[in-house]
Amino acid sequence: MAGTQNTRNKELVRHLLTEVWQRKNVDAVDELFSEDVLVGGTRTSTGDRTIRRDDLKEIFREWLEAFPDASVESHALLAEHDAVVSFATLHGTHEGAFRGVSPTHEPVEMRAFALYRIRDGRVVEYTAIGELLKLMEQLESERPLDA
After folding, report:
1. Which of 33, 53, 66, 109 could form a disulfide with 98 if both were Cys (CB 3.0 to 4.6 A apart)?
2. Are the C-beta atoms of residues 62 and 94 closer than 8 Å to each other?
3. For this UniProt entry, which residues form the secretion signal (predicted)?
4. Helix and strand counts by DSSP (H, E) for the chain
5. d(Cα 41, Cα 10) in Å, to the nearest integer?
């Protein structure tokens, strides 16, 4: 039974990565995340906690506007019970302003880990930790966390 749940949960995360990053379908967040999703961390540009789906959509749009050709290369998906951990690399070209940095038109990449907790076929908790400093260095910015 756990194997089936693990498989379903990994498929949900694969679907999420495909919809948001490959298909640029930010509205899929409404289908894939619970309305009261708990998001770990803060908005680096404001310091506000992100706790709603609309906040996630805004963040995904910010990234897709800055890196419109963004794609995610998934290296690993590990599932146990209600949790899925993803290790992936985001690839893209810096074509729009990002965190106060004007477009460089240069390719970038950033590795990230994400934890998804899933209940009833939706993500109820989401925390991502990525190499933002490495990304900002690629953008030749000396302001990695404030914008």
Report:
1. 66
2. no
3. none
4. 4, 5
5. 23
Domain ranges of the chain: 2-138
* Per-residue pLDDT at 144 exceeds 90: no
Model pTM greater than 0.70?
A: yes
Q: What distance in Å separates the CA atoms of residue 109 and residue 90, rounded to the nearest whole number?
A: 5
- CA pair distance 68, 46, nearest whole angstrom: 23
Return the pLDDT at 140. Answer: 83
Q: In this structure, which CATH number among 1.10.3860.10, 3.40.50.300, 3.10.450.50, 3.40.980.20 belongs to the domain 2-138?
A: 3.10.450.50
| Residue 141, CA distances (Å) to 20, 80, 92, 138, 144 in order | 26, 38, 17, 8, 7
The residues with which 113 forms a beta bridge, in sequence order, are: 87, 129
pLDDT digits (tens, 9 = 90+) for 57-93: 999 999 999 999 999 999 999 999 999 999 999 999 9
